[in-house]
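Journal club prep — side note

Before the paper discussion, L.F. wants everyone to see what a predicted structure for a comparable chain looks like in token form. Sequence:
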Amino acid sequence: MNRREEYAKLLQELGQPVPALDGALQRAQARRKRRNWVAKPLTSFAVICLTFVLAVNLCAPIADACSKIPILKELAQAVTFSNSLSEAVDNEYVQPVDLRKSKNGVSVSVEYLIVDQKQVNIFFRVNSEKYSHLAIDPKIKNADGGFLSCSYSLNDWDVENGSLQSLTVDFTDRDVPDSMEMILKLYDEDAQRDTPVEDSEFPDATYDQPPYISVFQFQLHFDPAFTATGKKIPVDKTVMLDGQKVTFTDMEIYPTHMRIDIKTDTSNTAWLASLDLYILADGGKKFKPTANGITASGSTESMEMNSYYCDSAYFQKAEKLSIVVTGARWLKKDHYRYHVDLRTGKSEKLPYGIKLLSTKQKESRWKIRFDNTAMPAELWISHICDSNAKIYDINMRDSLGSIYFEDYPEEEAWIVPYYNRDWKPDSPVKVEIKQ
């Protein structure tokens, strides 16, 4: 009997399954995001991210770990943002851990781990009697301190002092490693509030971050029985969506989520920016797109997303699953960017009925303001490029419809949207899969 089997056997002997918590508390709304929260690995990027990581200590006796299972009710409340993680907790697919460190009036305790072949979910508390609003600035590295290709984000904001919160780490182009290093830096968030704005037209994209109060380092080691969990089902079916050829190549099923992998035909006249889809089980149950964290991922060498994330059917006994497509968004290959004259403030006709209101320069920074009525700028603008197609990231956006970018060398710019065509089929397109 391996460690995973022994662990499962002991869980069964407890005889106390965790009840479903359909009416549990909803997670706190994100108050703000203090920096661009997209992490780009070396060969792929993932949508929606910020950072934190955890470590796992598997040296403690399994019986001691299992003795903590009755208190999983609090964990069940902490995972209500994810149907997949709720299913995992309901099926006791949880590893209790006990890692604690204290420094400078701050203590951190890591208590639970939900991990599979492609994702790590860490549940932890930050406690302090001295500070009431501690911000987290984490880093994830290889066990040897080197770069680790992954994306990670906190699932909770405005968490009360001492409450259970979580962080999700996703791996797109590799599996979860056996070990990693977590560096957790904490600072007083109250200390950076009420910072005066020097220029309302060009607010500073940076700020003077308060000094770190405490820095914690952990070496994380994962049980191979957990990191090997998951399966890939070949699909290899091609459909026509809005006159474009799309092939569903594989479906990856893990305890924490599912991934639907696709490939588009090079002869298509548009890049696939995003798909609206869900998974339908033979019993009629729907598995919807992931509601929190990463929703899709793709290669940095392409304008397209090629993997879509949904709630997991891992713990279901479905014999047949179907991919149901209800819509798509495209970026036309023959018109994927829009010209703007930065000096005159004029532009060609923009998509979605959006109008450019003004352009302004201050030193090396540019500001472009749009009429925010039709669609907020953050929902349609991906990036800026110059006449040589070199990409310039937008380093700030505001609620009035303005974007800011800097160190731009030309007086003309080209706006690249996420998509410029929205498509809905007359009836959903269904692709059936046999497990």
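L.F.'s comment for the group: The helical segments are 3-14, 62-66, 72-78, 83-90, 224-227, 377-380. Keep this in mind when we get to the figures.
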